[in-house]
Task: inverse folding
């Protein structure tokens, strides 16, 4: 427990920056007009593709006995993949709305 408290106190500024980034991101995304949603989703899918590759690299470089890195890397790959697939599904549904009906 002391190790965790020491790590938090050493990285306090980084933790504050991450929390601030979360609030700023929510605020920015909440004010995006619906017209820009599809291009932003495409960009987000590309970014999450990079996240998946990074998570795979982290898992590959993790030591065999470092189960935390392996589990978190696997979780990042699974959640990143779900986010990419879900983004493409939402984008496809939005584009279907603009097609002419027969």
Result:
């Amino acid at each position: 427990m002391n190790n965790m408290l020491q790590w938090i106190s050493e990285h306090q500024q980084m933790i504050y920056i991450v929390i601030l980034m979360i609030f700023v991101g929510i605020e920015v995304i909440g004010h995006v007009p619906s017209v820009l949603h599809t291009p932003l989703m495409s960009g987000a899918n590309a970014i999450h593709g990079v996240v998946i590759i990074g998570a795979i690299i982290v898992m590959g470089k993790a030591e065999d006995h470092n189960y935390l890195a392996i589990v978190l890397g696997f979780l990042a790959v699974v959640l990143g993949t779900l986010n990419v697939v879900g983004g493409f599904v939402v984008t496809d549904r939005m584009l279907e709305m603009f097609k002419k009906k027969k």
Notes: The CA atoms of residues 62 and 81 lie 20 Å apart. The helical segments are 2-10, 12-30, 37-61, 67-97. The chain has a mean pLDDT of 83.
